[in-house]
Amino acid sequence: MRDLSDTETAPRLTQGGRIDRSRPLTFTFDGRTLTGFAGDTLASALLANGIHLAGRSFKVHRPRGLVGHRENEPNALMRLGTGDRLTPNLPATLVELTDGLVAESQNRWPSLKYDLQAASGLLKPMFPAGFYYKTFMWPAAFWEKLYEPAIRRAAGLGRATTAPDPDRYERGFKHCDLLVVGAGPAGLTAALWAGRAGLHVILADQDSELGGSLLTERSTIDGEPASLWVDRVAGELARLDTVEVMPRTSVFGYYDHNILGAVERLPTAEHGARERYWRIEAGRVTLAAGALERPIPFPDNDRPGIMLASAVRAYLNRWAVRTGTRAVVFANNDDGFSTARDLSQAGIAVTLVDSRADAELPRALTGLEVTLHRGRTIVGSKGRHRVSAVTLDDGTRLPCDLVAVAGGWNPVVNLHSQTGARPRWDSIRDCFVPGQPRQNESSVGACAGRFTTAEAIQDGAHAAVEAIRALGKPVPELDLPVPEDPPAGRGEALWYVGGRDSHTFLDPQHDVTVADVKLAHREGYRSVEHMKRYTTLGMATDQGRFGNVNGMAVMAEARGLSVAEVGTTTFRPPYTPVSVGALAGRKRQRTFMPLRRSPLHDWAADRGAIFAEAGLWQRSRAFPQAGESLREAAFRETTQTRTHVGICDVSTLGKIDIQGPDAPELLNRVYTNGWKRLAVGRARYGLMLREDGHVMDDGTTSCLAEGHYHMTTTTGQAPKVMSHLEWCLQALWPELDVQVQSVTDQWAGLAVAGPNSRALLQRLLPGVDLSNAAFPFMGVGRYALAGGVPLRLFRISFSGELAYEVNVPADYGPALADKLLELGEDLGAIPYGLEALDVMRIEKGHVTAGELDGRTTAADLGMAGLMSSKKDFIGRVLAQRPGMADPSRPRLVGLQCADGDERIRAGSHLLPTGTQTTIDFDEGWVSSATWSPTFGRHIALGFLKNGGERMGEVVRAVDLVRGHDVQVEVVSPHFYDPEGTRQRG
Amino acid sequence: MRIPCPVCGARPSEEFTYRGDARPVRPPMDSSDQGAWVDYLFFRDDERGRIKEQWQHTGGCRAWIVVDRDTATHAVHGSELARDAAEGGQA
């Protein structure tokens, strides 16, 4: 164990880097308290504490260390937080270090160092490619009882909490002329020049700091350290009014019409929110997301301490962390030289293993003690929890505690590919580069395979000029800075080092090896899309960022094709993991959907109402008195209404105001029955069909004045009916001179039902003659209350009683309800709710949502008589299709318990008596059921084959789910007052 | 997607409700030809490429519109009010 107090060998350098040594931060990792500095990521802080071992692999639980420094980290997936605030599977490289951060490694038990399941590392042959699919083929019983539970325990990445998320998330829209994704040299240049020209620019980068690769490399621009140029540009961008700089913002999805999804992480909870999901609508998009270094997989390449060279340089240059004391750099290109230079200058002994036979140490390395093994590869490594030595193909053994691997670069073509564009293989640079754009976007710099800083700056400027020209604005004079790049020679393709393929890892997260890809090839999974799914290469959080291109090259080799010919897999959003909370935003719990409340909601709540959800609406179910259950309240309200008078909030019914000379013609076309002769001051029941002939909705429509109608719909279908009428008037019959307007929210509605309802309303409207002769059933009147408050009175009944519906402007609803109860006190007036309303309509045989379920015809409902034969209406022709007109279809019937007092359940199937209980004998169903306080027994409505001809027959109502099987008698659905004398009296 | 509403301008597609292919022609009201109605209501070509579609701006001005959209690329080439399309079609 090294002495960490020894500054000569301590991982953290005493100077340099972009960390703030004056601001130490304390955090815990697996229960150990550690310190880092402001500017650290969790990954750099762990390495600064000498910690490489950061996770266990998914299948075989091998110890795994930090490999990358960006979103390409496959191993160090952490669970962050405590209690309710737990976020699993976050790469430590993308977590900004904060004071008090609590991080835990995943996928290990009991501890990271002594993982018991690591024994399965010896059993790697147990988990070959296609393991899941092959296992599924085994006997199903074995799978369920044995394999699945075992695998579920062993597998899976981190675990989330099941507690509700205490944090808040927000969601917003942004628009811009130019969205620049990535704030490296290319992105900064594009944003700067476009911003100077006055374009509305959004510059987004997932990092907490702008600069991209300039932060991690020792490059210079205009002769000074590149970080000074970055700071100057960042300063100017902050001053430009039209430029919005969004650090800590991951653009993860690229959708149609240049709409992109981004998640902004808020370092300190702003207004209580932790993350914001932005939907960005961009005129143009410049993709400057850079490139990710790829590995050179070699046997035993998964030991902690074996890292990507770019990450080794980044930790050293940006975070002042020496990731080892004795390094082997393994490269197939010139990045090996800059890695060797940076490490050597930091006092680390370096041996460079270059696969190129003609590699020559450049002048930059003159005077540094770097040993070069040219034309050599690494064929093995040693070490338990940390690499301790590597072996070269010539047998040379090199002791080391760090291996920096530089295998070339993969441009981040993911967002480009998400648009449906096809990346193409660049055989000069050996990488996939963006292809023909499908949207208004271009890729620049390393993101386009142009890896030098000079190319990045040129590309960024070019993208800005294109965007400025596209908007017809004057292009500012370009005065581009001059970076100094190390001379880059051509690397050679080296996709993996052969030898022991089963120990040569392409995807350390999923333990996918070169052998697995070759096995997939032998077993016929040769398309890269098939191979990916068969081997799980690059799945889950990795999304192909680490070893996918290497894997495709292995497949290409096995098939005897080029990488260009086997192609790449399709990239889909999200590019990096996005928390579900951010996508949901505020659409959760109470704010998941809009909530609709009747104007009488508070009035009902004050009177002890229990509410029920009906779609978006909250409706009062019943008004229980002290000691009363909901059922008892509903039955009391039913009886009181039937014997005296009750008032019920029916404000949620859809109300549509229809005006215009052609209004009767519209009604005639959308309803099945005739409307041309409806007189002013009269209401009529109507049935509306869909084009396919099924019933869409029912309701009453009243003629308020010549050319002025008031339509009501069921609560649930109101939006659909409104849209339907708009469709009819705009698309089908624009020649009709009619206007429709939803007025559901404008009017409060109260049903006043019961034998005393006339007397009650007479007290409210003393000057109006409400006698049966003057105001008969289906009569309509418009009056004014004191102060001129308009009131509409409709004599319609849903309960079967003498009843009215009263509408007043919404805000007057509670006052009217109070007044009615006050005026009706000696008449026995009470409020009743949805439950009593439902009981009474079942007793009366009126249909509602349970019967109008979108599958029933007018004839099924016993309303064939409402289908006019004298006019054309929507649904007329298709309602006559043989299947729709079949007389043996299930028809609406009433059902009552044949003997005893057993409950009938809605949803039961109707079967004849004396048959087996199978679907073959199914003859219908129960649509609505209730206990009837009026008749003192259970009754129901249902649909029964040939129902009209089976009155008096006994059938079974069977509910196998809830274990009910009752004998029911088929009766008329009109249990209550079938002649209608009460409602007409 | 963004859908251009002739009344409100380009708006997010979430504000709109999709109905379907705008090209099938509804038989005349007085037609009793079941086959014609079945064709109109149930049969669609599901073409790849530019087609006319019906959408309603339900979260906006409530206009029914006809959108010229490419089903393969989702590119939108324009839109008009269903009312204008219907009147144009009859003329």
From TrEMBL, chain A:
**Start and end residues of each FAD/NAD(P)-binding domain:** 177-420
Q: Which InterPro entries match?
A: 2Fe-2S-bd_N, BFD-like_2Fe2S-bd_dom_sf, FAD/NAD-bd_sf, FAD/NAD-binding_dom, GcvT/YgfZ/DmdA, GcvT/YgfZ_C, GcvT_C, GCVT_N
Per UniProt, residues of the SoxA A3 domain are 503-586
- Is Chloroplast found in the keyword set? no
| Annotated GCVT N-terminal domain residues | 600-871
Per UniProt, which keywords does this protein have?
A: Oxidoreductase
Per the record's keyword annotation, is Oxidoreductase included, yes or no?
yes
One protein family per Pfam: SO_alpha_A3
| Aminomethyltransferase C-terminal domain location | 891-977
Instruction: Give the family this protein belongs to, as stated in its UniProt record.
Output: Belongs to the GcvT family.
Read off the NCBIfam families from this record: soxA
**Which PANTHER family did the record assign?**
AMINOMETHYLTRANSFERASE (PTHR43757), AMINOMETHYLTRANSFERASE, MITOCHONDRIAL (PTHR43757:SF2)
Q: Write the protein's name.
A: Sarcosine oxidase subunit alpha
**Annotated organism of origin:** Rhodovibrio sodomensis
From TrEMBL, chain B:
What's a Pfam family this protein contains?
Answer: SoxD
The record's listing under InterPro entries reads:
SoxD, SoxD_sf
Name the UniProt record assigns to this protein: Sarcosine oxidase subunit delta
Q: Which organism is it from?
A: Rhodovibrio sodomensis
